[in-house]
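Worked Example 4.2. Consider the chain below.
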Amino acid sequence: MSSFPISIRRTLIIARRDFLGYIKTWGFWLTALGPFLGIIFGVLFPLVMSKSEPTRYATILDETGLHASAIEELLITNNTKELEYILRSAARITIPQKDKEAFNKVLDEQGVEAAREMILKTSPVMAKVLNLPDTKLVFISPPANTMDALKPYLLGTNTLTLANQEQSLTGVLHIFERDGETKAEYWSTAPGNELVNLADLYFANKASENYMASAGLSREEVLKIRKNALEVSTFNPGKERDENGEQTVTAKDRIPYFFAAAMAMMLWFAVFTGAYMLLMSMVEEKINKVLEMLLATTRFSEIFLGKLIGVAALTLASLLPWMILGGIGLYGAMQFADGAIADGLAKAMSLEMLIFLPTFFILGYVFYGSIFIALGAIAESMQDASTLMTPMVLLLTACIMVVPIGIAYPDSPMLTAAAWFPFSAPFAAVIRLPSDPPLWETLGSMAVLVTSSVFVIWGSARMFRYGVLSGGGMASVKAWFSRVVFRRKNG
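Applying the procedure from the previous section yields the following structure tokens:
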């Protein structure tokens, strides 16, 4: 064991030191808990906003006598549609797939209250979320018959008595005839355009209905005809036939591409986060002379490998909340989502994805991590580190552009070329997996990345050794290249 070039024990000690050094900081835990805090904020924010929104009492002074009741009915209709949308969204994660058809039938035939009760029986936790307050816009009868008489109510000079409480009038929608044309004006001292938007929608619908009626048409019939219009079906001759013997392209055929894109983005985030921490760790320890003290008891290779392992473990720890949420999301989609979504996710978790995703994850991290360790070793200060970081960030940003290309054009020659370029190979190879590329191309991408990683580790280790011993700086790098690469002797 003593002749082995690297001590596993010392390497793991270095790795543990780097791992614990970051994991004890507040910044790490804020980052790690960020997804859960975001979910809590996302759930509580709409509830807080709905509680903080005051009730607005408005009235419609309709001198024509034609529009007031219709506008009030439109508000009720819009609120019902909004609640139906919320209930259908909630049903996606609460109603099992086998009960989805029954839920939709209850919502369509019995209304929102019956559908709400069905969700609450299935998931009582949703009770508070679905206990939505009524609309904050409340219509009342006009307390006066002219606009001049209503203005004191808007200014607060006069008040209303509603449910034994004094309330102020928020706004007045005044509809009247002038010069043979219908006019509408909104008067209010308070901000907010909900009633204005509602009235605009009503009059727009009314204009469309009048225009169609002049030609003997019905707006409802037109919408029905558009809904039942012919749709083009898409087929793929290379796809296996389904149970009906067809080769139709469906939504589930696109899901694997979005799944692969999410995995490529996670890989990019892990590489970027881990590599940045490696760079900062190297610069800080070099400035504080910690590396010199470590070299008294450990080898360069042990420090190099230990830092890679330690920050890799730290990166995985920071990604753990996202992995947990992703696992919960996948389980929920399998249990509650539509059959097409569940089938698409099952297709995305192919054997190739399960094998090559962790492979490219490890190789990509080692490749970029080694580069950033070398950059940290030659940097003399945080300013040097920032200067060296900028081109690497630009390079990483350029490489991640293969993700949208892979979603939109999975057969793009540019994507194929990117899979053979070591800097973009980890991301391009992953995003290409759903299109089932030839196995030799995926293995070739992996071979290119393995070869590049070995070369980068060799070069980075030498730069790391030279940078620590020489004190770093671009001058020392130029001297190293002059002496080692070009074999020139100093005068």
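Residues 198 and 204 are 10 Å apart (CA to CA). The first strand starts at residue 56 and ends at 62. Compare this with Example 4.1 before moving on.
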